[in-house]
Design brief:
This protein is an alpha/beta fold. The protein folds into 2 domains: 30-84, DNA polymerase, domain 1 (Orthogonal Bundle), CATH 1.10.150; 102-336, P-loop containing nucleotide triphosphate hydrolases (Rossmann fold). The protein has helices at 3-15, 38-46, 52-56, 60-67, 71-84, 92-100, 110-115, 136-146, 171-180, 185-190, 200-212, 229-234, 241-262, 289-295; strands at residues 104-105, 120-121, 125-130, 159-164, 192-196, 219-225, 265-270, 272-274, 284-286, 298-304, 309-316, 324-330, 333-336. The strands form 3 sheets. The protein has a 9-stranded mixed beta sheet, with helices on both faces. The chain has a two-stranded antiparallel sheet with strand order 1-2. Helix 1 packs across helix 6 (92-100), helix 4 packs across helix 5 (71-84) and helix 13 (241-262) packs parallel to helix 14 (289-295). It is globular and about 65 Å long. It binds adenosine-5'-triphosphate and magnesium ion. Magnesium ion binds next to helix 8.
C-alpha cells in the first residue's frame, strides 16, 4: 500500500484512544426524554423524530408542528438530544480526535485506495459520478463485499446497506467478488440489506429504514446506486427544480448527519448530464447541481479507458489532491491494472 495510505491508517489507530467519548447508538430510546408522555412520543416517532439523532438536528418549528408540543418543551427536547451528542462548540483538538475516529474501506485496488487517501472514508460521503458502464455499480458491489473483511484486510468487519434505484443489484456479482476474497458468498449476502427503491419517496423511506433499522445488521457502509435517477425522472421542467433541490438537500443532510454520528461510510453513484452552457473544459457534469456537489465530501469522476480499464479522477475534495488512478473491472471485482 502507498505511503500516504499507511500514515492514514496508523493515525486512525492512534486516534481511537480511550480519550474519545463513545458515540451514542442510533437505537437510543425516547423513553427517557424529559417532559413528554407516551402519546407525544408516538407522534414524534410517526413523524420521523423517533431517534435522538433526528431530535438533535430538528428545529423548534418542526417539532411543534408535527407533534403538537409547545415551544418550551420542543426547545428542551432539542437541547437534551444535542447534549447527548455533544453538539456544542469544540476545540480544534476535539475536532482532530473525532476525525481520527474515521476508518477506511479498501476498494481492493491499491491505486484507487491511494487516490482516495486510504480508501472509502467513514463519516463522510463519497460520490462516484460517470457515464453509463463507467463502473459505478461494480464499485458499489465491490464495496458491499469489501466492508465485510476484517480491519486488517481493509474492511470494517461490518455489513452494508444497498439502496438500489435502478434494479441493478446482482447477488451473482456479490458472490463472485466474495469468493475472490476468500469469503462465503451466502454469508456475505446475509450481511447486505438491499432496498429496491421504486420512486424517490420510496428511496427516502428505504434509506431512513436502512440507517435506523437495517434488519438487525451492523452497517458500516450505506450505498445509494444511483442517487439521482428517480429525482431526475420525476421532477421534470424548470418549475419543479427548486422543490427537487430542496428535497434532495434535506435527504442528503439527514444521511450525512447519521453517517457522521454513527461513523458510517456513505457511497453514492451519480449520472452525468450534458451542460450545454459550458464552453471550456469538460462539458459533462454530475447531476444534482450545487446541492449534491456540496453534500459530497469526496467527488470522484469515472471515465472509460481501454477495454475493461477505467480512470478515476478526483473532482473535488477538502483533503485529496486532484489526481487520477486507473483500475480494471474483472469478474473478481475492482482490481489494479497489472
Ligand atoms: N461479471 C463481470 N465480469 C467482468 N466485468 C463485468 C462483469 N459484469 C459487469 N462487468 C463490467 O462492468 C461494466 C458495467 O459497469 P457498471 O454496471 O458498474 O456501470 P455503471 O457505471 O453503473 O453504468 P450505469 O450508468 O448504466 O448504471 C460493463 O461494461 C462490464 O464490462
Ligand atoms: Mg449502474
Amino acid at each position: 500500500m502507498a505511503k500516504s495510505t499507511k500514515s492514514t491508517a496508523s493515525a486512525t489507530q492512534k486516534g481511537t484512544a480511550s480519550t474519545l467519548s463513545p458515540v451514542p447508538t442510533l437505537s437510543v430510546s425516547l423513553k427517557d426524554l424529559p417532559g413528554i408522555g407516551p402519546a407525544t412520543r408516538r407522534n414524534l416517532e410517526s413523524a420521523g423524530y423517533g431517534t435522538l439523532e433526528a431530535l438533535a438536528t430538528a428545529t423548534v418549528l418542526e417539532l411543534t408542528e408535527v407533534s403538537g408540543i409547545g415551544e418550551k418543551v420542543a426547545k428542551k427536547l432539542i437541547s437534551f438530544a444535542r447534549e447527548q451528542f455533544s453538539m456544542g462548540l469544540k476545540t480544534g483538538i476535539e475536532i482532530k480526535q473525532e476525525f481520527l475516529r474515521r476508518k477506511y474501506i479498501s476498494t481492493q485496488c491499491k491505486a484507487l485506495d491511494e487516490l482516495l487517501g486510504g480508501g472509502i472514508q467513514t463519516g463522510s460521503m463519497t460520490e462516484f459520478a460517470g457515464v453509463f458502464r463507467s463502473g459505478k455499480t461494480q464499485i458499489a458491489h465491490q464495496l458491499a463485499v469489501a466492508v465485510q473483511l476484517p480491519p486488517e484486510k481493509g474492511g470494517l468487519g461490518k455489513g452494508a446497506a444497498y439502496i438500489d434505484t435502478e434494479g441493478t443489484f446482482r447477488h451473482s456479482r456479490i458472490e463472485a467478488m466474495a469468493k475472490a476474497l476468500g469469503l462465503d458468498g451466502e454469508e456475505v449476502l446475509q450481511k447486505i440489506v438491499v432496498g429496491r427503491a421504486h420512486n424517490s419517496d420510496h428511496q427516502i423511506q428505504l434509506t431512513e429504514e436502512a440507517l435506523t433499522n437495517p434488519k438487525g445488521i451492523d452497517i458500516g457502509l450505506l450505498i445509494i446506486d444511483s442517487l439521482m435517477a428517480h429525482f431526475r425522472a420525476e421532477f421534470v421542467g424548470r418549475g419543479t427544480l427548486a422543490m427537487r433541490q430542496q428535497l434532495i438537500g434535506k435527504y442528503l443532510h439527514n444521511i450525512l448527519r447519521v453517517a457522521e454520528m454513527k461513523n458510517i461510510a456513505v457511497v453514492v453513484t451519480n449520472q452525468m448530464q450534458a451542460k450545454p452552457d459550458q464552453f471550456f473544459g469538460d462539458p459533462n457534469a454530475p447531476i444534482g447541481g450545487n446541492v449534491v456537489a456540496h453534500a459530497s465530501t469526496h467527488r470522484i469522476l469515472l471515465k472509460k479507458g481501454k477495454a475493461n480499464t477505467r480512470i478515476a479522477h478526483v473532482l473535488d475534495s477538502p483533503e485529496l489532491p486532484e489526481a487520477e488512478a486507473t483500475f480494471q473491472i474483472l469478474t473478481e471485482g475492482i482490481r489494479d491494472v497489472k
